[in-house]
Write a structure and sequence with these properties.
Layout (H helix, E strand, L loop, with lengths): L2 E6 L7 H12 L4 E7 L4 H8 L3 E4 L11 H29 L7 E4 L6 H9 L2 E6 L15 H9 L3 E4 L2 H6 L8 E3 L19 E8 L6 H11 L7 E7 L2 H13 L6 E5 L5 H6 L2 E4 L8 H8 L4 E4 L4 H4 L7 E3 L2 H13 L3 H15 L1 H24 L1
Parallel strand pairs: 1-2, 1-4, 2-3, 4-5, 5-6, 6-7, 8-9, 8-11, 9-10, 11-12, 12-13
Helix pairs in contact: 1-14, 3-4, 7-12, 10-13
Length: about 375
C-alpha cells in the first residue's frame, strides 16, 4: 500500500528547499504517491515534472510581513484581505483537482506559509509541518500576523519536523503536540567520493550570492589568507544580480584579487567542483541546515564553516570540519587546510554524512513517521 501525499512548497524556483523535498520523496518513493503543490510555474515545476512527479500549480500567499514598518501598517488590511482571497481560492482549487482522490497526508515544506493547515482540514488529512528556516535570523523576514500566531498554528500540526536542533529551539517546538528534529537527506551512500589530489581553489556555493549568505566574509577571508599569492582561486557558484556582482567585482578590484575570483553562476551538478576543491567555505550569517555543507562532506571536501545556526548541530571543530567565529580565524583555517594533511578529518566527515544524511537512512525514519500518523488516523476513525 502506498500513501497519497500532497507536498506543498513555497517557491516555484529550485533551491535548497526544493532539493531537500526531492531527496525526501526519493528516499520513500516505494511507499508514496507524491503530488507537489507549487505557487507558480518555473524551475521547480520543470524539475519535479522531469522526475515524473505530478504537480499542481495555484497561487497562494506567503505568511510574510513587510520589512518596512510604515508600509506594513498602511498595507495591513488590503494585504490581509488579499491573503484570505488567494488562499481560499487555492484551497478550493486543490479540493476540486483532488476530488475522489483520498489524500492521506499533507506535508508543508516550509514555515513561511500556513495554507497547509486549511488544505489538510479540507481534505481530512493529517498535517506535517517541515520547518526549514529561522526566518528572521537567516532571511530577515517575519510572520505576517506575528510569531505567536504562527507558532500556535505550527504547534497544532499532527507532526512538526525541524531540520536541526537549532531550528527546533528557535520555534520552541517543545511546546508542540508532536515535534522532533531530523536532519535532511542530502545524498545517497553511493554518492560518496574522495579526490586526494585537490586543485588550487576554495569553493563557495549558494543559491544566491549575497551578503546574508556570507559572500563578502569569504572574499575578505580569501584576501587575508594570502593564498592567492600561491595561485589559489576563490570559485563562486550561485545566482547573482548585477548589483551584487558589481559589489563583488569592486571589492575584488580594490583588494587585488580580481584575477583570482571566478564566477560560475548557477550549477546544476556541483559534484566536480566540490570534489576537486581544496576546501568549501560556509560563511552564512545563519543556516537552518546548509545542505551544501553536507554535500561537501559527502564529496570529500574539507569544510570551513561559520560557528552559527544549524551548522553547529553537525560540524564538530577539528573532528569532521573546521569552525570559525570571525574573518581572521577563517583566513587562518584556509591556510591551515591547504598547507597541512587534513585527510583524517575529511574521512571522518564522510562517515558522519553517510550515517546521518543519506537518503537510505532518512527514508526509514520518514516512512516510520508516516506509518505512525496514518495508523493513528485509522484508529481514531474506527473509534
Amino acid at each position: 500500500m502506498k500513501y497519497n501525499v500532497l507536498y506543498i512548497n513555497h517557491t516555484s524556483e529550485v533551491g535548497g528547499a526544493v532539493l531537500s523535498l526531492y531527496n525526501l520523496i526519493l528516499s520513500i518513493s516505494d511507499y508514496v504517491n507524491p503530488i507537489v503543490l507549487l505557487p507558480g510555474y518555473g524551475g521547480a515545476y520543470n524539475f519535479f515534472s522531469s522526475k515524473g512527479i505530478k504537480c499542481l500549480v495555484c497561487t497562494f500567499r506567503l505568511n510574510i510581513r513587510e520589512k518596512n514598518e510604515y508600509l506594513y501598517v498602511i498595507k495591513f488590511i488590503p494585504h490581509y484581505l488579499r491573503d484570505i482571497l488567494y488562499n481560499y481560492k487555492c484551497v478550493r482549487f486543490v479540493s476540486q483537482q483532488l476530488d475522489g482522490y483520498k489524500i492521506d497526508l499533507v506535508h508543508s515544506n516550509s514555515s513561511v506559509f500556513t495554507i497547509g493547515v486549511r488544505i489538510a482540514k479540507k481534505l481530512n488529512a493529517k498535517h506535517i509541518w517541515h520547518i526549514r528556516e529561522f526566518q528572521n535570523l537567516d532571511f530577515d523576514i517575519n510572520p505576517f500576523l506575528g510569531w505567536r500566531n504562527l507558532k500556535n498554528k505550527i504547534y497544532s500540526a499532527d507532526l512538526v519536523i525541524a531540520i536541526t536542533k537549532a531550528v527546533y529551539n528557535h520555534f520552541a517546538l517543545y511546546k508542540a503536540n508532536n515535534a522532533i528534529y531530523l536532519w535532511d537527506a542530502v545524498c545517497s551512500k553511493k554518492d560518496v567520493i574522495y579526490q586526494s589530489q585537490k586543485k588550487k581553489y576554495f569553493f563557495f556555493c549558494s543559491a544566491n550570492l549575497c551578503e546574508t549568505k556570507g559572500v563578502f566574509v569569504a572574499l575578505e577571508a580569501f584576501v587575508r589568507s594570502k593564498t592567492y599569492m600561491d595561485g589559489y582561486k576563490l570559485v563562486l557558484a550561485g545566482n547573482v544580480d548585477e548589483i551584487e556582482k558589481n559589489k563583488i567585482l569592486r571589492y575584488s578590484q580594490n583588494n587585488g584579487i580580481l584575477d583570482y575570483i571566478e564566477f560560475i553562476g548557477y550549477v546544476k551538478d556541483t559534484k566536480e567542483y566540490f570534489k576537486n576543491a581544496s576546501a568549501f567555505l560556509m560563511c552564512s550569517k545563519n543556516e537552518g541546515l546548509g545542505r551544501v555543507t553536507v554535500e561537501a562532506m559527502f564529496y570529500g571536501t574539507p569544510v570551513i564553516a561559520k560557528r552559527s545556526g544549524g551548522t553547529l548541530d553537525f560540524v564538530k571543530d577539528t573532528n569532521n570540519g573546521f569552525l570559525f567565529s570571525d574573518v581572521c580565524e577563517c583566513a587562518n583555517l584556509m591556510r591551515y587546510v591547504v598547507y597541512n594533511d587534513v585527510s583524517s578529518i575529511v574521512f571522518s566527515a564522510q562517515n558522519f554524512a553517510i550515517n546521518n544524511f543519506s537518503e537510505e537512512e532518512y527514508g526509514k525514519k520518514i516512512i516510520s513517521l508516516y506509518n505512525r500518523l496514518v495508523s493513528s488516523s485509522l484508529v481514531s476513525t474506527k473509534n
